[in-house]
Structures
1.
Amino acid sequence: MTRSKIALLAGLGSLVLSGCANVTAAPQAAPPQSAEEALRPYYATLDTNLPQANAGAQLDTSRAISRIAFGSCNHQNRHQTIWSTIAAHNPELFLMIGDNVYGDFGYRGEADLGTFTHAYQLQGSHPEFIAFRNQVPMLASWDDHDFGPNDSGGAFAFRERSEQLFESFWRSSDAVRARPGIYDSVMIGPEGERVQLIILDTRFFRDPLVSLPYTAERRPLGHYGITDSPDATMLGAAIMA
């Protein structure tokens, strides 16, 4: 090899190394800090046309009320004749206080909560339920079976998707949709006849339960123990604030 070729190769090598030295590595995105954060891009790809109950009667918060009905544990797969019985008592407001559908019926841990979506779709299609909503204003909270698996709480990784489904179906207010969880407070009636409804969320923020070894005999508290942690919470700091 001639000296000129050697000089040329050395020059090219220096140029390449110089170029490599000046390349700045692309900044790496911070890893997700939780399962919920990791799932948000996936949920953004899912259908945003979530189930909704019919609009129904609107609550007039300026008018005093005296008849409030409430109920829970409504399975979407079963008959819905109870609604006409409740309506016959002319409640001015009905509170759904949990297990309003059984979304975990057939659930196998899928992140998209397909069984929950189906449960809301089916519930919203029942003529008796539609007729009742057209007559009586409704407010709602949830319990475990319309939040997630049995006895689930704040550790449920898919709780944000569950919240989206709940808030869509029950047509939650903008204030509820703007914050984590589905808790709310509603003032009804004029001064002197005013009622405040505080709708709690005992699932979204709840710390994990203390599990006990399984036995065939059911304990008074189920298969759970009593926590002695002073920091354990049922409602979370946001609701208690």
Note: Helices lie at 3-22, 35-44, 82-87, 114-125, 127-135, 159-169, 174-177, 236-240.
2.
Amino acid sequence: VRLAVELEIVRNACAIWDTRSAEILERNLDKQQDAIDADQPEKFHALDYAFHKLICDLGGSPLAVETIRECKQKVDRLCKLSFGREREASILLEDHRKLARALSDGEAERATIIVREHLGRLDEIMAGIRDNHSDYFE
């Protein structure tokens, strides 16, 4: 569900994305980097959510963020376990940077590929969490 919603959001956002939207998203990305550098996984997690919300809001789909939030809630507690590791947060941030560039360039096809890769990482993260925290899955 989340993949279908986010794909539609970025397609629509590419059509209306402007310089102001790019600047707002860039500030969020800078804060994400600051959170990684300061080893603040909770702050990174909040900024990750804000990033997706900004795309919805600035891309003309503000109500879609509620659907994304509902989908994310189911895995967020577990994903937070991986955000403590700088490597995973850095990979997600790089995905976010690539998506921001695709939005700024108005390249909907590239943006959808990036969203697929980004959300596909959840499977990898969940597998790693299951391996490292098997007691949560009993």
Note: The CA atoms of residues 37 and 130 lie 26 Å apart.
3.
Amino acid sequence: MLAIADLVAAALPHVLVDVGFLEMTDPPAGPVIDSLVERGCASVAALPLVLLGAGHAKSDVPAVVLDARRRHPGVDIRPGSPLGVSRLPVELIGRSVQEAGGAGLPLLVVARGTADPDANGDAFKAARLVGEWTGAPFVQVGFSGVTGPTVVEAAQVFARLGYRRLAVAWWYLC
């Protein structure tokens, strides 16, 4: 995340760029927004650096933005959208699969998984697009948390279908 922020800051030298986190890592996003305002920002974009629109993008980031707006009523503070399923991440993962020798092989895509059915559906969409990019004859998604099919359950599908080799890709940002 910090490396991405450095790239954005280098590309936009007239924009203050900082990183705040929602959980497990400091600094928290709210105090980072406060710091940007204290440094003179009259407008702040809180961009969730997540792939899919699940709980963090739909609930957590908007809550941080609402709290920050209460603390800084004269500042324009807006939430951004998740990265979503778009050409660039599909292309990056597709190239990675091809470079690893997985072109034309059945494809298992591992995604985080969430309680949000829209985000899980987007993971399947991403998998299908990566499969098309790499020429996979069969594509399955396995989730590493919260929902199913689990990675093990997804891998068992390949075994039941008689596939002895497959490519594996991860639909994770970090």
Note: The first strand starts at residue 43 and ends at 46.
